[in-house]
Amino acid sequence: MQSPDRELKVIHYAWIVAFLCISPLFGVLFVDLPLTPYLEFPPTTKYIIHAPFNLQVFFPLTLFVAAVCFPFLYRLITYRADQRITIKSIYPFPSWGQLGIAVVAIFWVLAWNRYAFFQPLQRYTFFPLWAGYILVINGLTCMRKGTCLLRSNPRFFLVLFPTSALFWWYFEYLNRFVQNWYYLGGENISAAEYVIHASICFSTVLPAVLSTHEYLGTFRRLACAFADWHPIPITGKRGIGMLLLAGTVLSLAALAVFPDYLFPLVWISPLLVIVGIQLAAGQPTFFDDVQKGNWQPVVLPALAALICGFFWEMWNWKSLAHWEYSVPFVHRFQIFAMPFPGYAGYLPFGLECVAAVFLINGQFWKMD
Questions:
Q1: pTM for the full model?
Q2: CB atoms < 10 A from the CB of 67, how many?
């Protein structure tokens, strides 16, 4: 027999899935658009023509992102750590971390070149690259603190892979309503092969971000600078949760109607729905520590996703099977294929990663 807490958690999951999946479809039906393009699989048809680059949008948006990030960067630069804190020991770099370096080096070369002997497997370099990265980043964490997610909690670490696949498939679903990215180099494959290959690739997202998050937590200056900062007391949590839910659901319903204006919702709506339901139900969220002045649960995952984002974009750049972008108003000044302001999307994405993990294990990021 399920416990009341377990039943409540199942109900929360059901509401989260319902709000996130059904809301965008309501907008399509409301304005009497055909559903077929949005549900096409594999997704190959381009049916949204985006607005061209507009400096009057690009410049204010860039300034806004800079203004949001500035206080955190200023805090990190000006923070004075306690010099009495002893420096952590350096532990041996594990052999499996060395294996990860070799895997990354080999498949980086294979991904960016077109060797005749490798041609049948050319489109399958994504997973080995990121499996290698995950081994390397866990090895670096081990070297700094003697343990890591892979070693200390292997069962939870393995659960992250299938969870990650489901997690990213939802972003693929949301992208059908805005079409900000599309894939090339994977043509002429069956739907089954598409699902299998894509799911294997998507399975690396959460392990990579969460492992990088843990590694960043080993840097004392970075961790301590935000462990005791500005507390933000939050009252009326249930009311805030209901407002978040109502606003996000309505915005998601309008996603297909105004894709050029609401596309940033792809990166923030899952977070708002998850946190909104938790607040409305009186449940804990990963933002709770911010009320006490501990900003680590916000800063570290955001920075971890940004770091992973750099590697995602770099390794994608010259790979055969890759994605390209079509972002309204700001599609210029690319770093690799991503328009410069687009990297800001990785910051809330990092928070969504830990919000998703919080649904599995709320204690994960309470690290030493």
A1: 0.91
A2: 9
